[in-house]
Structure formats: structure tokens, C-alpha cells
């Protein structure tokens, strides 16, 4: 009986020694200065996708247009400041359209929208090498619906941080 107890104690001691509190691959990541941070805390840190969303990650367009309006330029100005602050980050600008029009037409329009946003960032000092573009046309709507409210939210260019 004593032998079984000693074996069980040895196994438990071994398992306990293998446990680490420094890094749990699913919920805890070694953070700045070795502090453990949860994945949610990492995402909420400045210089992350969540930080970009907070300052404005998308601009919107009128029907069949790729011109930037004043609101879009203001959003892209905030993105410019943010990208200059976090100059190690790269982004992709996704161009999107509403459901109207052919697939081919909307792919081209989405590309013009993404390019317009990229050109604005580059003209304001962001290196072109840090910004890629892609068009999804009407394939990835933000809002489902067949009315002007839904369409207006789907006519957009979205800036996303490249991991």
C-alpha cells in the first residue's frame, strides 16, 4: 500500500513539475516584460486590429462610386496617424460592393475603392509596400438585405492588419 502511495505521489509531482504558468497556448500569451496576458488583452492592445477598429477601419462610398468623401478622408487621416505610430504593421485594404451589378463589374469597382483608399494613405506618407489591396466585390456583404440601408453599409473599403 505504501509503495502504491509513493508511486502515485511521484507521478503527481512529475505532472505538477510539467505544468507551466508562463504560457498557456490557448488563453495566456507572454506579454510585454514577461507579463502574462490573455488573448483578449493582447487584441485590445494598441497596434492591433482592435486598435484600428477603434479609430475607424472602414470608409463608405456612394452607389457606383470610388471617390472618397470628406468623412472617408477623415477616417483615412486617422488611419495614417495610426499607421505612422505603428510603422512595423502592414495592412490590406479590402474593396467591397453592394449586391447590385454583375460579379465582374463589382470586382473591378471594389478594386477601385480599395485603390482609392490606398492611394490616399500613400499620398499622406504611408509606404506603398505596407499596403496591399484586394477586391471581394459583392461576395462578402457586411449586412444582409436588399434595401438602401444594407447596400450603403456594403459599399466600403475596410483596412485590416496583416498578421
Short précis:
The protein is an alpha+beta fold and 163 residues long.
Largest sheet: spatial strand order: 3-6-4-5
Question: Portion of residues in helices?
Answer: 40-55%
Strand count: 6
The share of residues in extended strands comes to 15-25%
Mean pLDDT: 82
Q: Do you know the CATH topology of the largest domain?
A: 60s Ribosomal Protein L30, Chain: A
| Tally of individual helices | 6
Secondary structural class: alpha+beta
From N to C, what is the helix and strand string? HEEHHEHEHEHE
What coarse outline follows from CA principal-axis ratios? globular
User: Any low-confidence stretches, pLDDT <50, length ≥5?
Assistant: 11-39
The main sheet comes to: 4 strands, mixed
| Gyration radius, rounded | 24 Å
- End-to-end gap: 55 Å
The CATH C-level class name of the largest domain: Alpha Beta
**What is the CATH architecture term of the largest domain?**
2-Layer Sandwich
Amino acid at each position: 500500500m505504501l509503495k502504491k502511495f509513493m508511486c502515485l505521489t511521484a507521478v503527481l509531482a512529475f505532472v505538477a513539475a510539467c505544468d507551466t504558468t508562463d504560457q498557456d497556448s490557448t488563453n495566456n500569451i507572454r506579454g510585454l516584460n514577461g507579463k502574462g496576458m490573455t488573448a483578449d488583452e493582447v487584441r485590445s492592445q494598441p497596434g492591433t486590429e482592435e486598435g484600428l477598429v477603434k479609430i475607424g477601419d472602414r470608409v463608405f462610398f456612394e452607389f457606383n462610386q470610388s471617390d472618397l468623401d470628406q468623412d472617408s478622408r477623415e477616417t483615412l487621416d486617422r488611419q495614417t496617424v495610426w499607421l505612422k505610430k505603428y510603422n512595423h504593421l502592414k495592412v490590406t485594404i479590402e474593396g467591397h460592393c453592394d449586391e447590385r451589378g454583375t460579379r465582374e463589374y463589382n470586382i473591378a469597382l471594389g478594386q477601385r475603392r480599395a485603390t482609392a483608399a490606398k492611394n490616399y494613405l500613400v499620398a499622406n506618407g504611408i509606404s506603398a509596400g505596407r499596403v496591399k489591396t484586394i477586391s471581394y466585390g459583392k461576395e462578402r456583404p457586411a449586412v444582409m438585405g436588399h434595401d438602401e440601408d444594407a447596400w450603403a453599409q456594403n459599399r466600403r473599403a475596410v483596412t485590416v492588419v496583416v498578421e
